[in-house]
TrEMBL record:
Top-level taxon: Bacteria
Keyword Metal-binding: no
The organism of origin for this protein: Arsukibacterium tuosuense
GO biological process per UniProt: methylation
Domain Methyltransferase span(s) in chain numbering: 58-113
Keyword Methyltransferase applies: yes
Name the record gives this protein: Methyltransferase domain-containing protein
A Gene Ontology molecular function term of the record: methyltransferase activity
One Pfam family named in its UniProt record: Methyltransf_25
Keywords: Methyltransferase, Transferase
Length: 209
C-alpha cells in the first residue's frame, strides 16, 4: 500500500486553516452552508438499519456535526469521530464535553471496527495532487472504511457529472459509475448509488449481509 502521509498532511493543513478562518461551522469544514450539510447527512444516514443500539465511526468528522445530526434521530448509539486535523479534534472535544457516547480521535484510521462507518467530504479536496495519486488514495481509503465496518458504510464524492463551468481546480470529481462498480465487485452485492438529492455530488452506501 502506498504511503499517503504526504496527502494526509496536506489535508490536515487545509482543513485546519478553514477551521481557523470560519470556526466550528459548515464553512469551517469547507461546505457552503448548513442546508447542504444537512442534506448530505440525510443520505449518509440511510446506511443505518438498526432498530436498537448501534456503533458508528465517522472518518473525517471535523468538529462533529454528524454527531449532532445523529442525536436528533437516535437515542442509543456510540459514536467515534476520527480526523487527521488535530485542531478539528480539539474543537470537537471542546464542543461535546460531557457527551458520554461520543469519542474523538486524531488520525486517519479508527481504533476499532463499528457497525457502520461514514465519510463525508474527505475525497473532495485533492489540492495539488495528481488525479492518479488521489484516485489511489481514495480506493485505499475505501478499503480501510470497509475493514472497520461490520454492517455497512457510506461515503460521498463530488460528481464528474457536475456542470463543467462550475468545476474548480484543486477539487476531485469522481465517476459515480466507476465507484459503484468497484464497490459491487469488492464489498458486496447490496450497494446503492444515490445521485438524486440536488447537490453536485453522490453518495454510495454498502450494506453487508
Amino acid at each position: 500500500m502506498k504511503d499517503n502521509s504526504g496527502i494526509i498532511s496536506q489535508v490536515s493543513d487545509y482543513y485546519s486553516s478553514k477551521l481557523c478562518e470560519h470556526g466550528a461551522t459548515p464553512q469551517g469544514v469547507d461546505w457552503n452552508g448548513a442546508e447542504g450539510q444537512f442534506l448530505r447527512f440525510e443520505q449518509l444516514n440511510k446506511v443505518i438499519c438498526n432498530n436498537g443500539k448501534f456503533t458508528l465511526n465517522d472518518i473525517g468528522c471535523g468538529y462533529g456535526a454528524f454527531y449532532d445530526f445523529l442525536r436528533t434521530k437516535y437515542s442509543s448509539f456510540d459514536y467515534v469521530g476520527v480526523d487527521v486535523a488535530a485542531s478539528m479534534i480539539s474543537a470537537a472535544r471542546q464542543r461535546y464535553i460531557g457527551s458520554a457516547n461520543a469519542k474523538f480521535l486524531c488520525g486517519a484510521v479508527p481504533e476499532v471496527a463499528a457497525d457502520f462507518t461514514v465519510a463525508s467530504g474527505i475525497f473532495n479536496v485533492k489540492l495539488e495532487n495528481s488525479i492518479h495519486d488521489w484516485q489511489s488514495y481514495l480506493i485505499e481509503t475505501i478499503a480501510i472504511i470497509d475493514k472497520f465496518s461490520t454492517k455497512g458504510f457510506a461515503f460521498n464524492c463530488l460528481t464528474s457529472y457536475s456542470d463543467a463551468e462550475r468545476m474548480k481546480d484543486g477539487l476531485f470529481y469522481a465517476d459515480p459509475c466507476e465507484l459503484f462498480n468497484h464497490c459491487k465487485i469488492h464489498y458486496g452485492r447490496n450497494v446503492a448509488l444515490l445521485h438524486d438529492y440536488n447537490l453536485f455530488e453522490f453518495t454510495i452506501i454498502v450494506r453487508k449481509s
